[in-house]
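Hi P.,

Sorry for the delay on this. The queue was packed all week, but I finally got your sequence through. Input first:
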Amino acid sequence: MERTPSRRRFLQLAGAGAAACAAAARGPALEASPRAAGEPAAALPFELGMASYTLRSFPVDQAIEMTKRLGLTRICFKDFHLKMDATAEVMAETVAKVKAAGLDLYAGGVIYMKNEAEVDRAFAYAKAAGMKMIVGVPTYELVAYTNGKVQEYDIPVAIHNHGPDNPLFPTPQSAYERIAGLDRRMGLCMDIGHTQRSGVDPSESAEKYIDRLLDVHVKDVSASTAKGTTVEIGRGVIDIPKLMRTLKRIGYAGTLALEYEKDSKDPLPGSAESIGYLR
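Then the structure:
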């Protein structure tokens, strides 16, 4: 009995333990600068958006509604939702639906370009839809031709990396090396999942290549290897708090577009969890 702590001592120990757990839960990765009570958090220089590949199993009307339900205001259309060969009438009708929903159709992609005709088509498509950017993957041989089209149309191209199981632009570095001497509107769309699967820290890539970082496809993955698969953001191996802090510090001012590749038939729960974690 003499070795048993008193009730007061027990509560003191329990309180200290709870405080330590709370501090550990916050951890250094999530610590923020202190601010006065009631003072709003500083606005981030970038916005959250939707890469509509996430919603590939749904028609455009539902994709728009799901994006709105997530509280997002920007969308990058994959051609599931606006066909590359859409008629002028369908194009105008779809763009009008996006605007009526309060969304910004800021980009199209990922668009693959394997010959000059496909490059031409991609730029005509983006111009007709009023897209401000193409998230694309030209072949290495077409990079110079694409650069010429960027200058002709004044529409930037953000080259999307696709990870260790795709030899064409597997990492942001592999794309950066091809465009470093070209027009500044030739840039990168860093897919942080594929970057991590290549064994590369997305935060480090963002910092190295910020001068060409036009867009970010944001997700989380289960492993830092080619076998890694998409999971809800916050449940995987990517250090998301570090990435957010890095992007803010280096002045990234583009979009973080959610590309949630899991649960294609029911993506909304995982997408909501992911967007909630980012916020």
